[in-house]
Write a structure and sequence with these properties.
Radius of gyration: 20 Å
Oligomer: single chain
Strand content: 15-25%
Strand order of the largest sheet: 3-2-1-4-7-10-11
Helix content: 40-55%
Order of helices and strands: HHHHHEHEHEHEEEHEEEEE
Largest sheet: 7 strands, mixed
Number of helices: 9
CATH topology of the largest domain: Rossmann fold
């Protein structure tokens, strides 16, 4: 089962990092059905499988944090026998999954407080947390206008636009990525999700850096929204994904190559704030 989950995570390119972290964490419960002679043998198996799951998508800090939290909790417990170690694992998995899932909701609730009635907001790609924040703000009576970039080449922004279009209190516009600069001067805010923040750098869907830099030039504040599990100070090295050239063009590239990075790096100095379930970080 864990091997199958590793393969599945490698293919989960359109899912949020929180969804990936939850799936991987729950996969560790498969070890509870295996037999181990000693606590040491069990802990080695837990660590080995956690690292395999983390390597399946090394760009996700929330996945890294989830795997380390479970492994470190079991190691620190110094269990007397395998059954105790398994019980500690089960409790740790439940706690980590709960923290990730509630972290998204907590961040969305805080972000909704920063969305004002009558405001015009630009967003990029697809963030379930940003969408939840918009839903909460409109449920409280706000009417807003949203500009949504397509997020080429996978066009996940179209999914965002379709979701927003189902909300009667949101006037929705879909843009090509290159048109964001044209419309930013009409916007009051930019709200985007986050893959992770590592130190003083935000890693998010490619195109975020361009939007943040343009927004800074235009004087439009940028807020990033996500679970605190996606914020990490040290111990994690972000690894970008370089996706298939066929996503960019279907015909063979002859005489040139095609670059297709999944993420880019945005200095937090270009941001106004990061909103998480733990609070708001101003930059």
């Amino acid at each position: 089962m864990i091997d199958e989950t590793v393969e599945e995570i490698e293919e989960m390119q359109t899912h949020s990092s929180s969804v990936v972290a939850v799936k991987a964490t729950r996969a560790l419960l498969e070890l509870l059905d295996r037999e181990f002679a000693t606590v040491e043998e069990y802990e080695r198996a837990l660590d080995r499988n956690a690292k395999a799951l983390q390597r399946a998508n090394p760009s996700h800090a929330s996945l890294y944090n989830a795997m380390r939290e479970v492994v470190d909790t079991v190691s620190a417990a110094e269990s007397e026998d395998v059954d105790d170690a398994k019980a500690t694992t089960s409790e740790a998995v439940e706690r980590v999954v709960d923290a990730v899932e509630h972290g998204k909701s907590g961040a969305a609730e805080r972000a909704a407080e920063h969305i004002e009635d009558g405001s015009t907001i630009l967003t990029h790609d697809y963030s379930s947390t940003v969408l939840e924040a918009v839903e909460l703000a409109t449920r409280d009576g706000a009417h807003i206008e949203m500009y949504v970039t397509e997020a080429r080449p996978r066009y996940l922004g179209r999914k965002t636009a379709r979701t927003l279009a189902g909300n009667d209190r949101v006037e929705t516009h879909l843009l090509t990525d290159a048109a964001s600069g044209y419309y930013l001067e009409e916007c009051d805010d930019v709200f985007v999700g986050m893959d992770c923040i590592v130190g003083d750098t935000l890693y998010n869907r490619v195109g975020t850096f361009t939007i943040a830099a343009t927004a800074a030039h235009c004087g439009v504040p940028v807020s990033v929204v996500g679970s605190s599990s996606k914020v990490i100070e040290s111990g994690f090295v972000f690894e970008n994904e370089f996706r298939s050239p066929s996503e960019v063009m279907r015909e063979p590239a002859e005489g040139f190559d095609v670059k297709n990075p999944a993420y880019d790096a945005t200095p937090v100095s270009l941001l106004e704030r990061a909103i998480t379930d733990d609070g708001v970080m101003e930059f």
